[in-house]
Structure formats: C-alpha cells, structure tokens
Amino acid sequence: MKLYNVAILGATGAVGQTMLKVLEERNFPIGKLKLLASKQSAGKEINFKGDTYTVEPVSSESFEGIDIALFSAGSTRSKTWAPIAVEKGAVVIDNSSAFRMEPQVPLVVPEVNPEDVKNHQGIIANPNCSTIQMVVALYPIHRKKTIKRVIVSTYQAVSGAGAKAIEDLQKEVKARFEGEHYTPQALPASIAFNVIPRIDIFLENDYTKEEMKMLNETRKIMHAPDIKVSATCVRVPVFIGHSESVTIETQEPITPQEAKQILSSAPGIIMEDDPKNNVYPMPIDVEGKDDVFVGRIRKDLAFDNGLSMWVVADNLRKGAATNAVQIAQLLVDYGLV
After folding, report:
1. Which of 231, 238, 279, 280 makes an SS bond possible with 157, Cβ 3.0 to 4.6 Å?
2. What confidence tier does 1 reach under pLDDT thresholds 50, 70, 90?
3. DSSP 8-state code for residue 60
4. Do residues 152 and 246 lie in contact, with contact meaning Cβ atoms separated by under 8 Å?
5. Do both 172 and 299 map to the same domain?
6. Which structural domain, as residue segments, surrounds residue 309?
7. Angle between helices 14-25 and 322-333 in degrees, nearest 10
8. Number of domains in the chain
9. Which residues participate in catalysis according to the annotation?
10. CA atoms within 13 A on the CB side of 41
11. What pLDDT is stored for residue 184 in this prediction?
C-alpha cells in the first residue's frame, strides 16, 4: 500500500484534534505525519497511533515532502500558508472560508460532488459546517425533484466558534449556578441558557456572513446557481452538534414517503424518523458520529410542493474534520496524489 506524507496545520485546535481522530479511525495510509501550529502552540505533544508527536511552528520548510496538508487554522493563516504548501508540492484541503468561493477552487462534499476534486489546482476547500450537513440531506432530493427554494434556521453548537467558545459555555453555566457573572470571551453575548441570533458579522443586507455562506456555498456545491436559500443562523448552548430546521420547495410534487425512500438509500445519511415514538435526531446523540441524521420529514403547509425536515450532525466531524479526511481519501482513490 502506498503511504502519504500528511501535515495538519492547526493541530492543537478542536478541528485539528478531530482530524487526527478520524485519520486514525479510518486507518488513512500515512507515511510521515507533521503537526503544525502557531509559535504559541508549538511544543505541545500529541499522541497518534501510539506514537508521540511534537507540534512544530509552521514555516515554509514545514511542507517539504508533504503530499496532503489539512488546514484548520483560520482564513488569515490559510491565505498565508496554502500557496506556500502548494508550491512545495502538497495538495491543501482547507477548512477556512479563505478560498471557498474562488472559481478555480473546488468546494467539495464527497456525498454530493466528489468529481470536483479532479479540477483542483492545489487547493480544495472544505465547506462551512452548516452547509455541509444541509447539502448532504438536500442533494438526493434535488437530483430527483429539483429544489427551487430553501428556508433554513440553524441551531449551532458553541464548538463551531472554537475551543474558547466551549470554555465560555462551561464557565458561564458554572458562574450562573454560583451566582456570579461571567463575560464571554469568544461569543458576542451571553450563551448560558440563551440563544444568539448572530453567527459571524452582519453584512449590508442585514444577513450575517454565515447565512450568506449557506446560500453561496450551496449553489456552488450542488451546481445549482438558481437555487434560492434564506438562512437564519443561531448559536445555542450546546457543546457539539448543529441542528437545522429545513423547508424546501421542489419543482415537482414530493410526498414525505417519497423523500424518506430517497434519503434512506442516500450515502452518508441515517434516518431517525418515528415521531410517535419520540425518535428524531438530537445533537447529544450524534456527537462523535460521521453521518448526517435526518428526521421529522413532513409535508410543509406553506408551499404546494413543500417539505420540511430536521437535520443534525456533529459539526466537528462531518461538519469539518471528517469531510476533510473524506476529501483526502478521494485524492487517494482517484490517484491525484
């Protein structure tokens, strides 16, 4: 078996750590492994497959001899280091928003558009976490019935904002019970026992950047430039697992039973849809899992050809790390590295 030299930039972060777990679980054929981070995080020791690795400060020499570089260190670092890694011969799979909408950069969800990886020019973008789980659920229906319109409200876990946001929720809940005040450091407002109807910055149209990502990325991934998507993205006091209430309008009529049949045989989807017996997806149950869970499929009462559903996934895994490792596996399977 051919082995591949892999680097992870952002190895000490929540997504970087999850990437390592997924690589190990899937027994990805790694020859040499390099764990990279900023100077502040360099020097930390991380165990992988029984061996201890020391995190190195990223430099241009870090990517010498690297075949695949998994990036999860934010847009600024991606814009700096991705071109350097490509110049050194690596294929970069980037988890930030830095390159997602660049025309020459494939934006890939393996269950939806795996062939797009063949068009890469050194960089492949990993989509936004909330977009990934939505398109996995929508694309099988879109292929059969053509989706015209999507209205989605998200309920996004604090881990989507990074390790410091997880700490915010932990510390604020503790402070509340002890009758003390805690000011969140990574989130724009109090998160304990609260919901925040804002993720990322507000734009001129009063939608947030996160909400517009769901529109623009869905169009690019599904090759559906005319699909309409209206999103409201909300942060909720959950540690891991994004949930989405999704309503679609299709060109042709579709029944809930048809949708269930389509989704039951679709890759990467697990149906949990038995509301009479209280069976439906919840974030606490999907943590640590790689699939997208779908339930509460029902006829929508606002659109003639409407359908509503509930979509849940682990945002650190399928929403980030697992999707990136799946892309790396596509590169191997297609002989592109």
Report:
1. 238
2. confident
3. G
4. yes
5. yes
6. 131-315
7. 50
8. 2
9. 129, 242
10. 15
11. 95
